[in-house]
Design brief:
The chain is of the alpha+beta class and 65 residues long. The protein contains 1 helix and 3 strands.
Amino acid sequence: MVYQWQGRLYYSWPDAQFCKCLYVGNETQFQKYEKLGFEQNMELERRTAAEDNEAASLFGPWGPG
């Protein structure tokens, strides 16, 4: 959420998964936070795809069974 106070914009965003807290910062800090989250999601997707490819290669073209 974005709030304006004394002519300045402040951003707040919850982190219910890890610290169960609320972050408050300026636009630059919020953009950095979002970029970090995006990069972490991309890394998770890369790891999942690599694990799926590795599992598929164990069975060859016939599948698991």
